[in-house]
């Protein structure tokens, strides 16, 4: 039981803006998340907020620690602060995963922006499609680069960049994507995520840091001269110190107290294709290797070849469909009939990963008109394609399909042994193969528990599952209104509760979490190691309680397939161990698509076994060179903190987060119970039913029904502060005008003991609450100041006032203000305000000092670079003088003297310009410092919330 005074106090406490370095700042984001956060994630998010002068941060936790969750916390907090221009740039195959993580775990609205949605927005009259109202914008690297001017034009509050190691070579002018994005995002606050910020050279770290803040270091030349030698202990320590404020890294071994890890166990099932299958493979493979092909657009030859090879390896049913499509298109081309859709679009209906692969696949070519020779070539190709298709259609069973049944028997036995559920997810890259596997399994012992998962899910069972799911969850927040999102949830729920086998295309690898399943079958194995890791990560992730079995197939007749598996298994370490692929290995490739291109090139160019062997040996050797052990050790020394130091910090974070979370949720429910009294029925401390919309919130879009706090059953509306009902409740309490009144605080019925208040039992007095807002450094923070006094004139401490407001109370009657008591409290409040101003000023001084030190380092770096140029000319002059001395002929001596004079003139000019350049650098530094100083001014506003008379009994 609380009063209107309690309610107003709680409403302001719940919505107050906290200091940037306060662990309380994230309380709302943590409370509103649908995930049990680990302390290292809270720690990383707070690091990103550490200074309001910061241009961003690099979060470099090891693989598997949830950098998406860390970024989600930062995004959720920005969202709560009404800073809602937020952009997420990720590899194209991770866009859906980001959408799902942010929408499901942080309940944030998101919009994936790609060519189709961008063009539709333009057609609808929105000529700034990146300016999305009330949604986090998610796009791919390639799309952000292609629309760089649009990206640059938006005043983003935050830009999150996933897999940011793709930007680490931004210091090289040849890296077009990275430099384009750097220019487009200059001056924006950025959060970069990567497990491998440093792979081959310290210059990569320079690249990433300069992408965030161009004033963190001087130019690349001065960085190379000062820091490129890790053996120089002094410069190494200086570099480590300068990175501390911008790079944050936590290791898996440091968080074992909070996160239990399970292992991956590989199973390999070998199979031998029948003669017909093998013949088809070689016929189609040789066809794809022809120098001139009419069937494939020259601008997409390598991409389409990749797709056809993947379908060929998937099943005869997959390649048969593709061959028929291509021959039909060639006939239409021959007859000059219009072709309604590009080949890419047709193939993507079966090979669902095509859109995302194409997004990062660049080829340039121009299609020309048909010549007579072209027509004859087309006719010959049609005959070949029809023959291939006829052979493919005649094959009714695939050896790999038969091997699947054997593999499932072995794998399920292993799962039973490990204590896991007998559930398996089977991944294929083809919709037609998916349908074939459904037929194969339908007549097996596993036939009754099969569910399909693909990009459309229009099959009868999926529609039935969806309809039942919608009916069951009607009225809850589980239903989003998006058929695609709800269908995915329905199928995953069915697989968890009723199904035994899910057969998924690549669409199933994106954004769904299957911790309840511990058996993964790669029926088709992608060549992109990042895509393989993404698949396995659907099951082998935080929350998985059992060791995960990973099944792969090896074609005994195909040496190239065997070598791909060997590479993914032994070099990339994808299929076994506690964590799967290591940082070093996955980080060795900037883009999985680029690696996929290398593999595709081997298949396309090598015909003989010895050629295949040599090509894979070269690739494996190059990969070994890229995984630099010495650089890995350098990264450890440079970016990693001592385990004990980290563990102690995480322990404190864990304790703080739990305190703030418990208090936050209690306050929210106490306030809600008070404001909805007589309207809602409360079942316990975390749930209630709202049968009708409150009259005072008729204009708000508030749904009725069951409400629960986050991380409960999720069969209800998820109640949180930024839910429309939560916002309405808070605003009602805040807006309520309160005349001075007496409140009886009932200590007798309080369940605990508050020692600090016991001296005041039986006493009465006055209490004043004020809101103090301090604006500085482009941020605002709020302080609720409570001051109390007894009728005997004894002041209550701040802690005593805080604890008094935690006790339930009864509103008795309005009273006439005691001006003497209130005047005394006004003086106390002024003292509190002065103290707060002092704390803020001291904290700002620390921020300012850190920023000034950074700018000093930047200026010194540039000056060192200028001085280095003069030293280099001095060295050249000495060499020229030695050369002139040893010259044998007069002509050589004269030429030497001429060179010396030219060099001396250049040096003298450099010396004169050095001082001018140094002055320019100092001027730039002073201007930057002046900009910061202008932000340091504190703007303070104080307003009275209420004054009340209290009585404690």
TrEMBL record:
Species name: Rhizobium aquaticum
Entries under SMART domains matching the protein: DEXDc (SM00487), HELICc (SM00490)
MF-aspect GO terms: site-specific DNA-methyltransferase (adenine-specific) activity
Protein name per Swiss-Prot or TrEMBL: Adenine-specific DNA-methyltransferase
Lineage, highest ranks first: Bacteria, Pseudomonadati, Pseudomonadota, Alphaproteobacteria, Hyphomicrobiales
EC number(s) reported in the record: 2.1.1.72
Pfam families in the record: Helicase_C, SNF2-rel_dom
Residue span(s) of domain Helicase C-terminal: 407-586
Alphabetical keyword list: ATP-binding, Coiled coil, Helicase, Hydrolase, Methyltransferase, Nucleotide-binding, Transferase
Coiled coil: 859-920
UniProt domain Helicase ATP-binding: residue ranges: 48-215
Gene Ontology BP, a term: methylation
